[in-house]
Design a protein that fits this description.
By secondary structure, the protein is mainly alpha-helical. The chain has 2 helices and no strands.
């Protein structure tokens, strides 16, 4: 009986650690994409001469950021 309780508790803790790992991984991925990849992508667009494409992307990103800050609870 005690070993069954132990196995259930072990499975529960393992599942919780798995879910926590997924959440942390997703958070780190969002951070890397937002802080590193998006600005690098924009600089590359300007460097290649696609400023006409970079400006609308920046405007759309700015609108989305402003709307998320207003709507967030």
């Amino acid at each position: 009986m005690l070993s069954i309780i132990f196995l259930v508790a072990l499975a529960w803790v393992t599942w919780k650690f798995f879910v926590l790992g997924l959440k942390l991984t997703w958070g780190i991925a969002k951070f890397v994409c937002t802080v590193l990849l998006f600005p690098l992508f924009m600089v590359c667009l300007v460097g290649v001469g696609l400023i006409y494409l970079a400006i609308p992307i920046l405007i759309i990103a700015g609108i989305i950021i402003m709307l998320r800050s207003v709507v967030s609870v």
